[in-house]
Model the fold of this input.
Amino acid sequence: AQVHDLNGYIIWEISGDLMPDLSTPLLDAANAKLLDPDMDCASFDLSTHINALMDEAHPKADNTGAGAPEVVYYPDHGESICLSDGHHPDWLKPADLFNNVQDCCNHHFSWNMANCIENSPDTPPPEAVVAAELESPTEDKLLHYPSSMGHTCLSDGKQPTWLTVGSMFDNEEDCCKHHFPTEDCTGTAVEQKSSLYYPSSTGSMCLSDGNQPSWTQTNNMFDNEEDC
Done:
């Protein structure tokens, strides 16, 4: 603001601007206006212009031929181990992710580090995983995802739109182990599960009527009203 001789600046809390893909459209638009004061903010489609300005100001690294995909280790608190299967939850912070099992175990399970390292499963090299995915496409295969109605995994193709492929699995067992490691999740498809409690948007209370918003994530739902 001072560089562009503006008459002040606003302290603007925009943490909600962080999108699932880690983009920040509002912040980018504000910075683009500072970079180009003549930009017409009333234009219907500014995305191309904004992206061009931001790319020029902050060039992206050229990863062409950079090598194999990076391995990401994340904590499995149910088993006190670290995994690197590509299914880390979207809500985990970058500071909770590591590129090796030793650092992951030391950060999350320092009180049991030796067992964590020993029991954490070996993971195939990233290039092998990518090759397997290319050889066995799953576009037409229904994946298992965690149900918002209880501790069970479904494969009916009706998963919420915000749920990423990394949170879904080829089989029920892997889905249950990942999302409900301490619960009786596996069972027959017709097994009735109790609805989870979720925070009501209309009052200071928790409900279990199965009518929670589609964007409510399972880690914000609970087995009982007291915990909710």
Summary: The longest helix spans residues 25-35. Residues 167 and 220 are 16 Å apart (CA to CA). Helices lie at 25-35, 47-57, 101-108, 113-119, 126-135, 172-179. Strands lie at 74-76, 81-83, 145-146, 153-154, 198-199, 206-207.
